[in-house]
Every structure is written in C-alpha cells, then in structure tokens.
Design brief:
single chain, Peroxisomal Thiolase, Chain A, domain 1, three-stranded mixed sheet, 18 strands, Hydroxymethylglutaryl-CoA synthase, Thiolase-like
Length: 389
C-alpha cells in the first residue's frame, strides 16, 4: 500500500520586511543578507497570529468536507507552542470543524518535529487505511531585534494531509535517522527568544547530513543520480546548499547541474518567507513542486534537521499527475497580496506581544486579512475566531 502526501499547502502572515532595507538599518552590507545567507524578505507575524492560527490557515486551504470526515488524527508540530499542557492541535481541530472522533497531539523536537509527525502518520495509515492524518508544521522564529539571528527570523506554517494512495507523493522506506545530545540551538521555557551557537549549529547540520546520507546509500542502494532533487531544512537558504556541496563530487557533472538547479528552485518560497522551523523543509518541497518542471515518478530526497539534535534523510516519489493536486495559484496570490512594512513598523510589530501576566486583552482583527485570527485573551484563555463560521 502506498502512503504519502495527498495534499500540501502553506500560509504566511500578510506583512513582511525587505531584507536589503533591514540590512541598511542595521549597518550591514545588504549582500550579507541577500547573498550571504540567501534571504530576500522576512514574514512577520502580527499579534493576531500565532502558531495555532498559522497552522489553521494553512490547513484551511487544502481540506474539503471529505477530509473533515476522514481526518481522525491531527499532529501539531511546533517549537512555538502556546501552552505547556494543551496541544495546539486541539485548537486547530475545533477551528477547522473536523470529525470529533479524532486524536490531536503536539510534537516537539526543534525543526525536526514535522518529519516525526509524518512518520507517525504513516504508521497510523498503515493500520487504518481509510483514515487521513493532518500534519502541521507551524512556527514563528524569534531571536530579537539587533541580534545575530535577526536576519533568519520568519513566520508561517505548512499543512499536509497524509493518506493511503496519495495524489502528490508516495513516501518511500529506507529512512535513516540520527540523534545526538548537543546544544547548538535551544529556547528555555522562561524565554520567548531562542539561543543559538550559529557556527556550531552549521557544522552539526552538515555533519548530520553526511552521516545519514552515507547510511542511507548503504541501506537503500540509491545514489545521487537516482535523485531528481534534494530538499533541505532551510533556516536560511544558503544552509542547504552548503550541505549539498559536500556530496556533489559523488555524481556526474550532468547530475550535479540538475541537483543545483532544482535546489535553487526549492528555495524560492523560503527566500521570501524566512525560517519557519518545523515547516521549513516542507516549504522547500512545496517551492520545488510548484516552480520546477518535474516529471511524474521523480524521486525527491529530503533532509530534515532539528537542533539539539535529530536528523533524518528519506525520499518520496511524485505520483501520476501530481501537479493537478497542487494549489500554486492560491500560494501565488498569498505572496502577491502581502504588504511590505518599513523597518520601524516591523520593530513595532515585533515588540507588540501579549501580556506576560495573562491579563485580558482584546485585539483588533479587522486589519488582519487571515480567515482565522487570535482575537484576544480572556481569563488566561486565548480567543480564536474563524471569520467564515
């Protein structure tokens, strides 16, 4: 039985800041941001959007009434959770009006969690072939204003429906994964901003990729020539390229050119959204599928990495007429309707946060075009609104 991605969609907030203008405001050569790390725009989450609303808005694009009935498992994957106890998946389940006879949980392992969610979903579908699973990778990357990590912030979510006989991509076996207890990136419970050892994290990312790739080749019998493209977790778009370059000499010049070309295509969306942690790898996959001319049956390699650290390499095969099940026009409209804000306005939005003491607050959602928004906090309970209900 084939199991894989039946539908995939994403959502990003309606405002962004231009990276060249941010560089100038920070006294940095713009090329350091646009070429050095490979970022052009950075999505900004207004106070009316959090990891729950981003996930729900992403899912809203792809689910229909049949999905609402058949989805019996919601896997919410995030390192930007809004509650230490209650799963963000429970909120999303209600906001989308899903079948009440469903499970809803939240997974956490830095940027790797959505991959763990997909593997969990595969097991569920294997036991329940008529079911569907909604996997959500949703995050807001925050490092702080005027910090070394500021240029790698971002906000957004990717939603995927995992099912039997998928329309977009069959997920193959031969997964190879690796765990090691390191401190390259972390966010203690008491902090709303992450801590990162950038140089160390970059080194570990590449080391993890090299290790799982070597084992994957032995386990699967496949090589670079068997991949039409490789997508990577992208904290910034140059990161995956650094890893890819470490193995390119294993392939012919023709294969190298193909992989490099498709890699650049896979970074288009990420370059204009920024880092969305758990969703970054799958935003890269979506960028590739919607902007490259790949043949049905093409094999795509995927490297998932979550600091702390867990890494995994796995592959998927594009299904017959997979393009018919993508929603590229909707995603293009999402980008086209976004509003650029000044650096000053970005800083104002960044500093506009919910009360840390749980005080009641009412938020103005009229300026947020998203269907699902956070409208305030009452009695320490976040208040969500689906404008279509």
């Amino acid at each position: 039985m084939k199991i894989g991605i039946d539908k995939i969609g994403f959502y990003s907030p309606h405002v962004y800041v231009d990276m060249e203008k941010l560089a100038e405001a920070r006294g940095v050569e713009p090329a350091k941001f646009t070429i050095g790390i490979g970022q052009s725009q950075m999505a900004i989450a207004p106070i009316t959007q959090d990891s729950v609303t981003l996930a729900a808005n992403a899912a809203l694009q792809i689910i229909d009434e049949e999905d609402r009935e058949k989805i019996d498992f919601v896997i919410f994957c995030s390192e930007s959770g809004i509650d230490h106890s209650k799963s963000g998946g429970v909120y999303v389940h209600q906001l989308l009006g899903l079948n009440p006879h469903a499970r809803a949980v939240e997974l956490k392992q830095a940027c790797y969690a959505a991959t763990a969610g997909i593997q969990m979903a595969k097991g569920h579908i294997a036991l329940n072939p008529e079911s569907k699973v909604l996997v959500l990778g949703t995050d807001i990357a925050r490092y702080g204003l005027n910090t070394p990590g500021e240029s790698t912030q971002g906000a957004g979510a990717v939603a995927m429906i995992i099912s039997a006989n998928p329309h977009v991509m069959e997920l193959e076996q031969h997964n190879v994964y690796l765990t090691n207890d390191i401190m390259d990136f972390w966010r203690p419970i008491y902090s709303d901003k992450a801590f990162v050892d950038g140089k160390f994290s970059n080194e570990q990312y590449i080391l993890f990729f090299n290790k799982v790739w070597e084992v994957y080749k032995e386990k699967s019998g496949l090589e670079l020539k068997d991949m039409e493209a490789i997508c990577y977790h992208l904290p910034y778009t140059k990161m995956g390229l650094k890893a890819l370059r470490t193995v390119l000499d294993e392939a012919s010049e023709e294969v190298q050119e193909r992989l490099l070309k498709n890699y650049q295509t896979s970074t288009i969306y990420n370059r204009n959204v920024g880092n969305i942690y758990t969703g970054s790898l799958y935003l890269s996959l979506l960028s590739l599928l919607e902007n490259a001319d790949l043949e049905d049956g093409s094999r795509i390699g995927m490297f998932s990495y979550g600091s702390g650290a867990v890494g995994e390499f796995f592959t998927g095969v594009l299904q017959l007429n997979y393009r018919d099940y993508l929603i590229k026009e909707s995603h293009q409209q999402l980008f086209n309707k976004r509003e650029e804000v000044t650096v000053e306005k970005y800083e104002e939005i960044f500093e506009d946060v919910l009360p840390a003491d749980g005080s009641d607050i009412e938020l103005d959602i009229s300026k947020d075009p998203a269907t699902i928004c956070l409208s305030g906090v009452v009695d320490n309970k976040r208040q969500y609104v689906n404008k279509n209900r």
